[in-house]
Structures
1.
Amino acid sequence: MSRKNNNFSFEQESDIDDIDLLADDIPASSNQHQASSNGATAGQNSNPFKDPSIEDQYIYPDVELVDLQSRIDTSSAPLNSNGNPFADSNQVFDDDNDILNERVADNRRDLPDFNSPNESKFDIKMYWSKLLGKPYSKVRDNSSPRIIHLNDPVTNSHFRYMDNHISTTKYNLATFVPKFLFEQFSKYANLFFLFTSIIQQIPGVTPTNRYTTIGTLLVVLTVSAIKEIMEDLKRNSADKELNSSKTMVLDSKAQNFVPKSWLNLKVGEIVKVSNGEPFPADLLLLSSSEPEALCYIETANLDGETNLKIKQGKSQTSHLTSPRQLCNLQGKVLSENPNSSLYTYEGTITFDNQEVALSPDQMLLRGANLKNTNWVVGLVVFTGHETKLMRNATAAPIKRTNVERIINLQILALFGILITLSLISSLGNIIKLQLDGNELGYLDLENTNKVGLFFKNILTFWILFSNLVPISLFVSVELIKYYQAFMIASDLDIYDEEKDTPTVCRTSSLVEELGQIEYIFSDKTGTLTRNIMEYKASSIAGRCYIKDIPEDRRAIVGDDGIEIGFHNFEEMYQDLNSDELGNIINEFFTLLATCHTVIPEVQDDGTIKYQAASPDEGALVQGAADVGYRFTVRKPNSVVFENTHLGRKYTYELLDVLEFNSTRKRMSGIFKCPDGRIRLYSKGADTVIFERLSPSGNHFVEATTRHLEDFAAEGLRTLCIATRVISEEEYLEWKPIHDKASTTLVDRQQKMDDAAELIEKDLFLLGATAIEDKLQDGVPDTISSLQEAGIKIWILTGDRQETAINIGMSCRLLSEDMNLLVINEDSKEETRDNMLSKLTALHENQVSAEDMRSLALVIDGKSLGYALDPDLEDYFLEIGVMCRAVICCRVSPLQKALVVKMVKRRKKALLLAIGDGANDVSMIQAAHVGIGISGMEGMQAARSADFSISQFKFLKKLLIVHGAWSYQRISEAILYSFYKNIALYMIQFWYAFSNAYSGQTVVESWTLTLYNVFYTVAPPIVIGIFDQFVSARYLDRYPRLYRVCQKGTFFNVTIFWGWVINGFYHSAVIYLCSIFIYRYGNVLSGGQVADHWTFGTAVFTSCTLTALGKAALVTNLWTKFTLLAIPGSFGFWLLFFPFHATVGPLINVSQEYRGIIPSVYGSLTFWAMTLVVPIMCLLRDILWKYYRRMYHPETYHFVQEIQKYNIQDHKPRVTHFQKAIRKVRQVHRMRKQRGFAFSQADEGQDKLVRLYDTTKKRDINGVLW
């Protein structure tokens, strides 16, 4: 594959290297393309596993496949004309291919030669992988195809293919210690404390107890380890639940299928999957309960598409239905090696002296579910982390928050300050000894080496000032985050009572990230929508019918003579009995019951469940059945429906299907009706149907157009219904033209469209339908609030462009006055030109900020593949960030991850990804914060995410309330922790100027240690858990407050250093005041003079009260816990100090405090200093707070006043006015663009209806009856 033809350049490919979980097992040689033996040149596709016609595939160098023929023997194996032995998926290999047949026949050659010097019976990599719990697969030669022997587990075991276990855990027994320590010591603070602990062990260096730092560090690491273990155990429990799921596996001894856990499933085994069950591994379809080995699968968990897909086994294997036949199956499969492409597969199966080529039509991928088929039998090809689903997954990443990253950098700066302070103090000591050495003779330092003393002093002062970085901070933060996660999980507002599912926080370390999100990347299917389509209303012959008429919407005739409003079904049944109107109603629902590709599935209770490739069609057929036109039977050439009003069944002979595609935007069926007439039934977008209406006889166009506008204004998906009677002569004249077009080899699709145009004319408009794609509860309100909060939302979906736009309108991501920028091109150059033209127009026209807010970008998967190239991604990102909303359609799972990674790499913004399917896992893990929805597409996303919720609407409170709270609380707790430590330990620096820079501490060492452990530990924890700068009610009411958090108002570099400088200021004030006070007030009541420790205790008490006073100033919400934490902490110090000073000396601890209590508590100077000094320190803080709130208030300051005084605002009235304006704009916009309810595949509909016969089934032995 050349760089030119590759949608992704090599630079992009490197961005997703981590997606390949097995990169270590793939040799570097697999990354290099070799020219095929027929002389393929550079720029040509030399990879036969890549169908050049398939654009939407993404095979990267680490998993790219080499020519299968060349794997066998490129020097002598003959190739077909294009050098691809698998060019035709239905081709059977020629028997004269001697080399290939020889390899097929001789199984022994396929086995690894363990006697060869290149092979070892002892594979240390295998044992090491088992020890680490890492997936491991042993393949003899990765340049050759995977060889799987049928019903030969012994032979297959020699290849040591990977087992079927899945692991999403972050650690295991072997990796926990190294990974945990690496993560913890990537925090500079922990490295700093580790270094400090080592220095403390050097004799004669530390001025404090040698175990204070190492003990505290061990506590920090232990708390962090316990939290990590608890969170990973939750992931492990979810993995065990999945791995222990059961499936039916063929047992050759029992000659039957027996239950077996997914974990124990092996490559080469034959499994049986029943209707509604997921596939346990990547399977090769052998046979099914349906004729021609057909089956339906749902791939929403893989690619997000809700429409069912048809798979078909090979005719040579379709008869293998009974266990006995399957047990007797002998042969082998040559398969491509594991890769990440969901849409390609190549291989061959050899049995009974025949060799059959395999294609993606036979591939059943893990993550998909079997639908509308009683059972299928498949051969396990890929297992565990080698399945295509897991190849599209990424390993659980180690995520760090933005706050942590800022702290890490600022700690480096604090290290610089600490070293500077140590150098100043050490140099001061040397200068003092040099200048005043004669006066310091009692220190006996005359013969001391000054250079050695200088460096020793640096270490001493390093230890003395080391607590400028608060080691207790990290324990406090871990506790705060863990409790915040607990409160999120305990919030009943984000608890789903119906599903009994609370919000789960799997990574509590990311809680504050929820408060700074700027971009949300969301899946559509199952995240915004419920995967449920509901038939809402019909417009028939100018009259609207609905089951339940909304309030004040009963039908009336407007001033323009057009009827507006609704009639109920009872009135429709009455109209059905009239002549002209009744015939139109009957024809309308007959069309809905016949012109479709839906398959009826009869349930055990006799009811019919409709399985549809398009959920819209399923809703239409169900809607017809609900009003009495019940579709019952599909045969290859006819359909049957029952009119329950008349109690009669009608058979319509299907003559032709004119398929839907994105160009035609309609589907038509030609039927021979029971009355002998040939009718064309057509349904599609109003624009294409109106163009083909007969110029005369259509009296309902204006009324139907009005109804379409009303439907679209409600966010409903609309479809027009039309018909015409075709004479037999016209049909016989047209039929050969259509047949010839369907078999041409040149421009077939266009010629078939042209043939359809010849007969889709002069239509009679019957009416229109309205379908609601049921959104998750509260989605529109949630998206509106998130956008108001300043969050840009990008939808990344596998659905079609029209479907995605309709959902965008319904959920209010796209508003009526928005201008859509559409990029839907077929080549890289066209994509470049499209984006450049849009950028030029936006820049040259100088679009206003208001107009910028009305822009929305829509791009399809093919164009996105080009736009993600390094030379185009800047254009794409520039357009994307200008837009208020972005919708990416038809994207693959890897494209989702690439989009997230691109924005993450290029923008300094926090990203959140949310989805509910396995296809969303890569995107979820690539974002800063990943949220999984435990929805209809399974639990894979929820298991792999940092947070899981059960409904999208819970995202609003999770971000706007809990996120904002968590960010503000963590910020205040961290800033306060740094402040209080600097305020105390900088006193040590100022004291060095008074003690000849000797390293003497001003406060007793255990008291210094207990400062962070007892006396000031409670305030940051209480602030971090209970503080609220604004209540939940007002945060929900004013989503714009979230922008305060986005801007980093509570924590940024400027604010951090403001707190640091404030700590320096308070320490200087405390020290200078204490020096002046005790210079003149150091005489005690008994005539004694206060000693050094009395002075130090007074300094410590003043500093503690100052720090607690600062906590009181920054607290927004006072609770009983706040009272215990702030006043209570100071009371605890005053009560605990006498106990410490009394008991400590008795147990040989804190000897400095022996007999000190009377000289402290009995001194008026001590109490006066304790009262006056904190006031002098905090006076500046009080005045600054007053100035900010009065003259430069933040947004939340106004809301705090509204909250405090319960001031009423006029937001409800404004909201009502905005809704009225939105309604008017919506109607005008919908005159230009209306949605239509079609999301079928572009081809294959005729094949589907021709192959299916619901009257034929297999019995338990697989025999058709």
2.
Amino acid sequence: MSSVSPDKRRKMESALSQLKKFTVVVADTGDFNAIDEYKPQDATTNPSLILAAAKMPEYQNLLDQAIKYGIAKGGTEEEQVANTMDKLFVSFGLEILKKVPGRVSTEVDARLSFDKDTMVTKALKLISLYEEAGISKDRVLIKLSSTWEGIQAGKELEEKHGVHCNMTLLFSFAQAVACAEAKVTLISPFVGRILDWHKENTDRKSFEPHEDPGVLSVTKIFNYYKKFGYGTVVMGASFRNTGEVKALAGCDLLTISPGLLAELSQDHSAISAMLSVDKAKACDLEKIHLDEKAFRWQHNEDRMAVEKLSDGIRKFAADAVKLETMIKEKIAVAGDPLEKSAGARFKASFLLRCSIDSVHVVPLESNGGNTVRAHFSVTTPSPCPDFSAVCAAGQDCQTHLTSTPFTGNLPAPGWCVRQWQTTIPSAYKAQLSLGSTQFNVTINAEPYIRSSTGRLNQPPYVALPPPLRAQADCPQTFQLSVKDLDGDRVQCRFAREDKGECYNCPQHSFLQLDEAKCMLTFTGKAPPGQYFLDLMVEDYIPVPKSIQILENKALSSVPVQLSLTVESNTNCGSELLGTVAPQEDLLFVLPYQEVKLDVSYPLDIGSVDEFAVVGPPQLHNKNDVVKNQMTLAWIRSENNLTRLLPICFAANTKSFQSKLQCVWLYQREMRTLPTGTELKCNQTAMTLVLPLASIPNILVNELQLNSPTCPITSNSTHLTATISLNGCGTKTVHSGLELVYTNTLRTVRPYTMVSRRPTLVLPLACRIPEVQARGPYYTVEMPSDAEVFGDFRVWIEVHQPGEGSLSKYTKNPRFMPNLRSLPRVRRDTGSNSSPAVNTKITTRLKELDLYLMSDCNILKVEMVVTKCVESETEDFKVSNPIMDQGCLNSSSTSEIEINKNNSRVYRLNLDSMAVKTSDVMYIMCNISLCMPTSPTGQCLFECGRAGSQNAVLGSVFSRTYTLRSGQVSLIPNTFVSPSVTSSTTAASTVAPNPAETPQTTKNPSSITAVVISHAPTTTSVTTAAVLITISVFLQKIILY
């Protein structure tokens, strides 16, 4: 093999890999999964990161253990909280040290920043907790604020106790000089926060990396340290973009957030060392000395440093207070016998009695409305349960998985929303379970043809709010938000146990319901606790008040179940209402339109602890709890959700909840473009040709695009427009894995004009890659697999562990973190839907390695595995999931880390798999290849294993290939190398062993899908199938 040139090798490496050659990379996170993924040398934490991590369900065990420790230590409440905080910080550090080979930084409470002696005492206590856990102090850095007192505390810890210190919140050159003279181990100058200050307080709003004030500050400090031989090392921190990181390549250390680590791992641009000892020696800096007076004066002269240091201390202190408050509440329940008993009762009630749910019901016209599509939204206690009880394999059921589920911590013990849809009878009654919770569902939506329209009646919609909160002795109202597509009158009533609509559902005297308004009133006359109520929402034919009908029966009814947590009274006050923009409670949404809701609450209420939000899948929430603001955003991509979609939200503080507010999104119906319409998309513009005969009674001179300056021309037969993708008001949105350019041709009239003529609303959309569509039929033009990925093969292999072409990875495997997994589903072995199999097994293999292979040699190409199933029979009539929608079956499957993006290897635990009665198995997987279209892009794995939720905004995918193994024996015997048979979409061919003779094809429709089985087998005849899926990249729609 010819050697690879250094330039080419550098181009193949990621920016992160190159950076690690010049600089020690440190992960700035408390999330263990992020540390696993990017494999930094060290890791840092702070109160803000610990607070965020402590709210995550997966880390609740660490919080619970710390609380038990704090209570066991005894003392006053403050002492118990302090001991719990110390234990929690150290517990996170201990877990991080299992992931990194170097050191972890643990921070001393920022509220001690001006008390040297107390900082020293706290630091030594943290070190003692690490040493009790068997961790040497050499693997721990104590983080201290870079005040004069903090620097002197660091000096004492280093000189007298041998404790290494990391001086944080460093913004001025004076702080850096004082730290060097104190001979502390490490400093963390904050690059991004310096940049933030200059953007806010100067006329400059953007800076190139080489002129970034934060970069210049760290460069000066680094040069000063190296020129004069100080032993203190520099670790740049608080980065805002990868440009800042690259500009400091060569710095001793850089602590980087997971988001920027992800960008650097996908960036393949060249990086060189910008900082070096040689450059530092040549700089013109002069050595200075600072005593306390000189330090305070020079630091005081730097306005930016003074403001950012005090601001940083306040923010870290605020998060420490929030964490303490969370701990106090949990200690109160766990420590006091009476409160513990009450808390246990409430928790048991929450776990066993109820989840909080609503169901949106859509009658299916295909069978006259005898069945309906039920869209469930259910709130359960944290952590989020799986869907196994409500969406078993093989059911007509779709789950809505998202990387950012709707969750909250208030009220305790926290909550999570699960959403799915399934087909059920129109008259349906059942008691369902989700995780450890149970909920009752009673639906009456039997077919009713409306005489006014001749169409099926649509049941009412009711929005699911987040868990409701109130204070004892403080009356409060809760307005339930309901809608009806038919315009019917909607009423709410309490569910009746005698009708089987609920179980164990007493009507509480302190809860009153205005049935006509669907308004719930809490009188305040209830002791603290958690209460549940079951309601039925019904629609009635609207009747004028002047007409009396003896019996106006409900057309349909759907359930909604709510929870109300009554808390001890602190201060009733007035009901707080957030300001929402736009102010409408019903927003009409066009295809590919992005809807944004800006919500804010007054600052005089104090800082919001969390925003409780429940909405449609893929609703994104960006919030700032310090400013009491949040922005909710949703993009209407292709979906099978209901026409009406509610978004409900409230602001939670520790003592109260704001007034519940809901906004509805209405997805307008889509129709195909009229016959003869032509819409062409290229790289810079879309061109529309619209026959005027297809839009009768529409005045052309009233039509305009998003921007009225974009010209529209017409003659006697056609209307034409050339619409720039970068102008004409064209908007760009990200829809799933596609970049979509949208514009709208619509009728625009002066407000003073009243007319009965129809109006036109014609959304236009172009997606990447370039396509062309004509009339009501689609003509798809897209690159072939061969044009994008070159000539390649895909195949499947099955090996015993430690064998096969990738045995160097499987002999001593490193397993990838499984961030999200499928529920474990067992097959009914008594099923008669497939032939009987041999049920006598004496000895069988315990594990097998599944290889999903590709020989595509393009650097950035990744293999995406969307589904794998196993079966005892070759026809797969009965199968069990190994993976679905990118989610591994955690009970039986683990992914092995390999140094190949274009292939995947999984370790199958046969004892945990559903195959129990046979000595053979078959495997079938769906795979595709993916290549990001941007230099920093990243392919998105559906279950969130490979990056953030915004990792891929534009990627090219190959067709989906279905790979089938041959018969795989589960009985150990002599290894036999099987023969290989493959088939293609064009014709079947016999392929040699791909390990010996790689086979390629120039015809993209005839790419060979090779299937190999290397597990011990008795018969090795295998088959392969290539299933082609084509995505249509242009949606043509018209609305009237």
3.
Amino acid sequence: MFPTFTGSSRRSRNVNLSGQKTTNPFTSTSWAPNAAIGASKTVAHAQVERQQRQQERDRLRAALCIQKTWRGSRARRNFRTACRQALDQMYGNPDPAINTEQRSARAVPLVLAACQPSQLEDHDRLGRVAQDLLQTNFSAFSSGAVDATRLDKLSRLFITALERYGAGSTNVEPQVFLEALDAIIKARPQSLALLLGQYYRVLGRYCHQIGPSPPSLQLLRTVVVAPLVAAAVPGSFTQSAYREFALSFLTQTGVPALECNTEYFSAELDIDRLAESILAAAPAEPGTPEAQDALLWLLAHFIALKKAKKQHKAHSLYPKALYLLLSILAKPIRARFTACDPRGAGDDGEFEQDPQQALPAYVSSQLASLVDKGEISDLLEKFTSDHGETSFSELDDASFLAGYILTLIYCFPTRGDDIRMRLYLADITTRQGPIPAIKFFWGAVSKTSIFSVIVSNEDATLDVLLQKRSLSESTTSGADSQWHRQWRTILLFLELYVFVLRLMDDDDFFSELSPPDGPIQPVSRLRSSGLPMESLKRLTLFLKHLGFTLYYNAAKLLEAATGLSEITSGREGPFQPFTQKRNSFDVSQADKTPSFVITAGIDFNAFRDLVTAAMRMLYERDSRRPFLPKRHWLMTSKFDMEAFLSAVVLEQKRQHELQEEDNEGGENAGEDEMETEYHSNFTFAGQTRFRHVQMEQLRAQQKKAARQRLLAAIGPKLEILRHMPFVIPFETRVQIFRQFIRLDKVQRRGGDTDPDMWRMRLLNSGGGLDPNSPSQRSLLTKHHAQIKRGQVFRDAMNEFWELGDGLKEPIQITFVDEFDIQEAGIDGGGVTKEFLTSVTKESFTQDQRLFITNNKNAFYPNPCAIDQQREALREAGIPEESAMYRDSMNDLLKQYEFLGRVIGKCMYEGILIDINFAGFFLLKWSSANAADSYRANINDLHDLDEELYQGMLRLKNYTGDVSDLALDFTITDQVSLPNQPVRTVTRNLIPNGDEILVTNENRPLYISYVARHRLAVQPYAQTRAFLRGLGMIIDPAWLAMFNQTELQRLVGGDSSEIDVEDLRRHTEYSGVYAIGDDGQEHPTVRLFWEVMHQLQDHERRDVLKYVTSTPRAPLLGFSQLSPAFTIRDGGQDQERLPSASTCVNLLKLPQYRSAAVLKSKLLYAVTSGAGFDLS
């Protein structure tokens, strides 16, 4: 319709012959120039007038509404005033003709109409009516004078009045309202059907205010329990009552009346109904800190009620509800329980401590009770007494128990060993009789389809792991799918088996592999926990296939987990009102890193670390004392071995480039500087800053995790080499190690690996050689040192300490004698070798202060060095807080660190040293880059202290009562210096260890703690300093490619028989012995090789050590010896002995004419050391 007022919608004909254009020709009725504009104004004015009329009508309606509302409010106010006056008249001037029953019948309608409990006067009026109702036993309702449905509103008034308790002075005691509510519930429980949430919330706050011992405790207990035990009500009411009791009452912060009288309150409770309500109401995640606190209090109260109730049922729902709550709260419990745990963070530092306030004492004590000996034993007894008759239910029960125990271990890391010990000591009843728990779980694991598929087909492992997504999509509860249940069983078995392996010595382990002949003797718990050979083969295959996939396909698995987290993040629960309260600092919104969660606390990294720990412990035992087939661990079929070396080097180069880009971008800056203090979190401003810091920390952690995932994605072969190196042949790994060093040299030295070329490039970078240039003099002297014989180590440390990782670059050494006279010789590499071997010889063989030897002459850091240094400073009267004391202690650790750099330099340059290291010490080298670090065990004590090892074995096998030996969880450390009267100090192995007696039950833990103290805790600072220095020169990831035996070969050479022909092929000749154009060797040289073939292997080793300073060949043969083995003529004197220059691997051999003379002279020289000199 056109905007005109003609009354017709028909378009009128309009012919424009003027040539002028109008904006709307249909509104123009004149040819005047302003006609169109006038018509538009008319329409606009009409629209404005219409809007004004509409606004006027709206104002009139609003005024009428306001007047109506005000009149209604005034009428209600006047009515309430009249009702209040009537009530005041009724109770202020009571009519003698009206009894209490009649008065209550008249007063109830008045109080329902007029009472507003928010006003204290109405609070008093409501109280007087409540007293009348109580005196008459609510006869006003039972007689029909007042409709029974009015009890609903009256209940709400009583609850609101009780909520106002403590808000101001009043003449009515809250007990009156409690008694009234109790009477209403007994008379008509349905009155509270819609008020149960408010009812229990108000009761919880009231209990919080009145303290632990109120005079009306019996009444309070009655009103709390009344809705839960109400008779003649539908099941839905009882279900709602238990639900609100859990969500609104038990979540209250501090309910002293309940906490101090738990047994009294729990007498009539049905724990299964309460557990059922929690199972139905629990959310997927705790959400905000307020929601976390509420759930923590619910968990604490739930535990206390169950303990007080002592309700035992074969199929109780309590463990399932407890498991669910622990799973939801696993992270906050782990972070906050540690802060208040008297055991502290432990010695291993295996978990992080979140800077939050500690748990309330009551919550902490209730949570701690979950890991008490009695509680865990009772739980295991309940779970295992009747776990089902069919194999399916047996696996199901095993999975549930596994999930619960894994959650406990994650939530309470400081109590992890106690939990594992309880499970290790448990016997589980099966149809075949009771068996050790580890055997039970091994049986459950071996029956799972996941285990069978992975063992039988290494290529199917990835498909098995990716089933997590499809199962979670197809089930309503993805976390409880068959996939998850099977994995939980597997992971608990691995947790328990790793614990048992720590306790087992080799005799226990191998006893199951080769059962003794003759009559069967009683076996210990440890020996009964061993696995037979076929089981170990299957287990190692499973771990090998699974571990390979977790490292090689990590990027694909985490990518799948990212999509899965989007699918499962939508689950909600009745706790959603808690979790919806978000603020601008909510850290839960920032934590969106990919996850691959099996159960609470077992994310992708924890899952992979556990698998790796079990696999490496079995591999280390097999490498120490082989029991598996020779090529059992290899997985060469997964790679193209011909191209493997170049592919790994390329991955290393790409990762190095990526890390350099990150360093240039500053992404790593500040990650280690974000620390918060506990005391600043208890004020509002402090909490606000804390939230900001948490957000920054999470962002930094996510960036770091994303970088690690990217590095893993571009270097899957490197991940295998770092964490599962044994799947690649040793020779290949040695070649990779040398290539990594070569690549590092190229990157650091700008492509010049030759020392002389590198020095020339440094000079040319400054514009040419200028002896007067200070900068060039600095470049020339920075890597040059003058070393005095007899104090090589101290001079080396003074000269080269400031270099740091610059020690990787070529160094030049000038030796001086005791009179500071320089020795002749030019350092072309040989003097450097002499310098490095001299440093190691002086540090290890001449100075027994830093390193000591075991009974096999293998070296390890002196575990008493720190204590001895402290004792020496104390005797010197130097206070601990002084700068001299700190400098002295730091200097000792610097010596360890510098020695680590020297050993690293020898490995970096391919220089072999004749030093044997203890196996447990070398294990720390290979585990320096691993997440689980070094795990001390009783077998390593054998390398440390044979006497202590035998003592621990005697204790382990002691058949009597160990408590009779009066041992406690303490250990004695020597602090006195050598050759001085022995002084010791006693230390606790665990907190309050001097108060804990060693018994038959806990002696495995005692032995484990002794081993951990001697192997890890006592030498921790020394070992850490040494490894820090070693890691400056040799990347710890490179060392992780080898086990302890292989590392010793890498440091000192191959211990296999000397290959004379290989040595001959790679020997160089000079002087008269130089091979001419005819290609023939000199006759004396031929005699030398003839003699070498005749010598015994130990004699060949003596010759090799005489020339090269080490009796072992390089790992990849003598082609790797640097400098090359060289023979030069030593004159024609037949009586002269051969001599050697070890710095350049040079043998100076006189021109002997007979093999007999050559042999006798050679053996005499190498055994007596005659003729040893430096050219």
